[in-house]
Write a structure and sequence with these properties.
about 55% helix, 9 helices
């Protein structure tokens, strides 16, 4: 630490460089949640870890996936982010995307080799749960849920722009 950092730490009891690093990490995690590719990429180019995670083990890719940020998910995966990294609760990005009905994210993760059976519950189990719940209530799931369920349950990537009748559950 510099003399200024030492003086700051003595005066405030805070570790300024560490506080700044934590603040930057939170900013990067927020950029992932909002899908701000243009805001996040310069930090990655400058050396920020592509698998940066919050205190709960949610990586940049997990946060982007859970919040439906398909283009950022693709960019992070292209840069080497672990598409199967589990958070502290044992959840995978793919299972989170299936749970949220994010069909474009599901497709992007599967295109990058995400494992349908990683985590607990796995994406396949999550899809089966949604499929069963919709079958038992005779309520068709929304288009996004249906498409994500079809992709995850059957492992086939169908175009997101496909009409609802092409996915699990019929029309």
């Amino acid at each position: 630490m510099s003399d200024v950092d030492d003086a700051y730490a003595r005066a405030t009891g805070a570790d300024q460089p560490q506080d700044e690093a934590v603040a930057l990490a939170h900013r990067l995690l927020d950029l992932a949640r909002t899908g701000d590719v243009d805001g996040l990429v310069p930090y990655l180019d400058a050396g920020a870890p592509v698998d940066l995670a919050d205190e709960a083990g949610n990586t940049l890719l997990m946060l982007a996936a859970y919040h439906g940020q398909a283009s950022l998910v693709g960019e992070l995966a292209r840069r080497g982010a672990d598409v199967d990294a589990l958070n502290a609760r044992g959840q995978s990005p793919l299972a989170g995307a299936v749970f949220k009905g994010e069909a474009e994210v599901v497709a992007a993760l599967l295109e990058r080799g995400a494992d349908l059976d990683a985590g607990a519950p796995s994406a396949r189990a999550t899809a089966a749960t949604w499929d069963s719940a919709c079958s038992m209530t005779n309520e068709p799931p929304g288009r996004r849920i249906r498409t994500a369920v079809s992709i995850a349950a059957h492992g086939n990537v169908i175009p997101v722009s496909s009409p609802p009748y092409s996915a699990v559950g019929g029309s």
